[in-house]
Design brief:
Layout (H helix, E strand, L loop, with lengths): L1 H33 L3 H14 L4 H13 L3 H14 L4 H13 L3 H14 L7 H14 L3 H14 L4 H14 L2 H14 L4 H14 L1
């Protein structure tokens, strides 16, 4: 009886230790990502997926890290793999859009961002980002009125990013909406008085208004 008790205790300690190690490994990838250690985060996620090929959290963190590390083709591939496992995971849908955006695949990227904003809750953490990228794609396509709408939605979600206000000002400027462009550039300068792009944009637009 005593031996059985000792065996059970040892087994439970081993299981608990293994569980703790596994939990720590799962946490490590996200911690590494937040600490800017993107290659290390990818490696941890690869190890997790080797043990569990259906672990969506590993796909998500890996793709975030790959995009941050500018490994866009790899991010596109792994996000697509993750979506085969979980087709409706909004995080993978959005990050696949980012990967395609940086690869210059505007149509594919736009489709992913539109799918994301259509399904994500208003409080979704990447809604503003998705609208921002949509705006940048519209600028690439010289569809400046559409870019204005998308970037206006982006700054509504995240109003403290001066660079987004600059891009909104530029979209409005290129669309010929000069007074609205000045307002956007002014807001960028209010947030960051040293913004060269905002200052130059405001000067250009004011020259056209004179």
């Amino acid at each position: 009886m005593k031996n059985k008790i000792v065996f059970c205790v040892v087994f439970l300690m081993s299981f608990t230790g293994l569980f703790a190690q596994t939990t720590a490994a799962k946490q490590d990838a996200l911690v590494l990502y937040h600490n800017g250690k993107y290659r290390e985060a990818v490696q941890v996620c690869e190890e997790e997926l080797a043990n569990n090929p259906n672990r969506i959290e590993s796909y998500v963190v890996m793709c975030w890290a790959l995009v941050k590390n500018k490994q866009y083709a790899e991010a596109e591939e792994r996000a697509s793999e993750g979506l085969e496992v979980s087709p409706y995971d909004l995080r993978l849908i959005e990050v696949l859009g980012e990967a395609k955006y940086y690869l210059g695949k505007n149509t594919g990227a736009m489709a992913q961002f539109q799918k994301y904003v259509a399904s994500a809750p208003e409080s979704g953490s990447r809604v503003g980002v998705a609208y921002y990228y949509m705006g940048e794609i519209f600028i690439r396509q010289a569809r400046y009125q559409h870019a204005d709408i998308a970037l206006s939605s982006a700054v509504k979600k995240e109003p403290l990013l001066d660079t987004w206000w600059v891009r909104l000002g530029y979209a409005r400027e290129m669309a010929g909406n000069y007074y609205e462009a000045v307002a956007a550039y002014d807001e960028a300068l209010r947030l960051n008085s040293s913004s060269v792009d905002a200052s130059r944009g405001r000067e250009r637009v004011n020259a056209k208004l004179q």
